[in-house]
Design brief:
The chain has about 120 residues and is mainly α. Helices cover about 65% and strands about 10% of the residues. Helix 2 crosses helix 3 and helix 3 crosses helix 4. The radius of gyration is 19 Å and the shape is flat.
């Protein structure tokens, strides 16, 4: 079993539970997941580059980046007239990887139930 790098006291206090729920709320928007995935791939990008990468409008991407920035998930730096965004909370990437792995496992299990290998049934 994987032990978390950061441990918190259990049972959770109401305040900690609220903070965790707020973090999940920030990540509950599919466009934000797509933005994070794109930025993970390229390392750092402007709003325009991200908007092109996720096929969304500049305004939409900018709004989501502001939410991610306020939550401390992405950072930004000015480079001349451009503002570049990067992921600063690597824990979010680990969380996404964990969820993706869990979803893949669920899909494999569901396929095994719905479409069993006829060779196994004959054995």
């Amino acid at each position: 079993m994987h032990v978390a790098k950061h441990s918190i006291q259990h049972p959770l206090t109401d305040e900690v539970a609220d903070l965790i729920a707020q973090r999940f709320a920030v990540l509950s928007e599919p466009m934000r997941i797509k933005i994070l995935d794109h930025v993970r791939e390229v390392g750092e990008a402007s709003v325009r580059e991200i908007a092109e990468g996720v096929r969304a409008t500049h305004a939409n991407v900018s709004r989501h980046l502001n939410v991610l920035h306020r939550a401390g998930i992405v950072g930004r730096r000015k480079l001349g007239t451009r503002v570049l965004y990067r992921i600063v909370d690597q824990g979010v990437l680990r969380l996404c990887e964990e969820v993706c792995g869990s979803l893949a496992e669920q899909q494999r299990n569901l396929r095994a139930i719905l479409d069993p290998d006829p060779r196994e049934a004959a054995a």
